[in-house]
Model the fold of this input.
Amino acid sequence: MLKRFKALEPFDASGALHGVLVAALLAANACSAQQPVAGPTVKRDICATAINDPAQTIDDATRERFTKEFNDEVARGGGALLDVFDRPPKALYSVPPRYPAWARRCEVQSRVIVELVIGPEGEVVRTRVLGNPPRVLADAAVLAVRQWRFQPQTLGGEPTSARFLQPFNFLLTPASEEDGSRAVIGHRDLSAGDEKKSLQLSYAIAQLESDLGPGVRVVNMQTMELPLVDYARSVQSRMDSIEAEEGTPLVNQNLRVALTVNADGSVADVRAWGAANEASQQRAEQAARRAAALGPLPRTPGGEIKKIVFVLPFAFEADRGMQMPSKSP
Done:
């Protein structure tokens, strides 16, 4: 039942997050993930404001308290970074998150990663959402996982506390609709190896989003918010046109550009790397700024997006036949 349940690994947050780190995460052997499907068409004014069901949402004060308690626990040394136990935790009781009706109608889809601490008695004592997924889905995941109970993990023969990561994929799939539109744990159409890569990338991106601050979304080939994916692909299309005009490639698997775009469409940051010389890097950055002049970011129901970060070239492998690099640049 806990195939996707994973011990937390330390994450080094030092360095330039907007530059090489972002791109290395997004370009490192990303596999083609299960793609969400379009949900029912609804009037967009219905989706302008989240309809909060008290049974499926968390108020701001409680949400802040959960995060503070988690951070205080970590600061005190609770929930050590462990991945080896005499006996790993075993789920005794678990319930999947409910897919909130408003989110389902308004096509709100996302992967939510909950960081949790299992206490020595097997209870979930602390939770924190990693990254910046739509709040309505994050709340649903937290409310579910805080009900879980485990046979606790042991170390040296004694029960101990430990931190773990638990991902949930809120996908509008026919299967989820048939069983009450619950969240899916894991992808149903990926091999074990591809799913492991997908989860590792998701963990790193979620941690990066947390480091970059509230309202920042890192967009890549696995992003489930389709309007953001379409936006990034439109920028890539404009970049292709600029390359055709100039008659020379500007970005490729070696020369990449990380873009940070504000909600109003203004470009907050452009970083290129991998160029043979400074002139090539400057041309790539200038072209990326031109390509990103698309106006405001698309509205994504359930999101509170202040800016997005993505890397050019941006494409699904099936679209462009790109061979992703096996190592960070």
Observations:
- The chain has two domains: 6-10+42-213, 226-316.
- The domain at 6-10+42-213 is CATH 3.30.2420.10 (TolA/TonB C-terminal domain).
- The chain is about 35% helix and 20% strand.
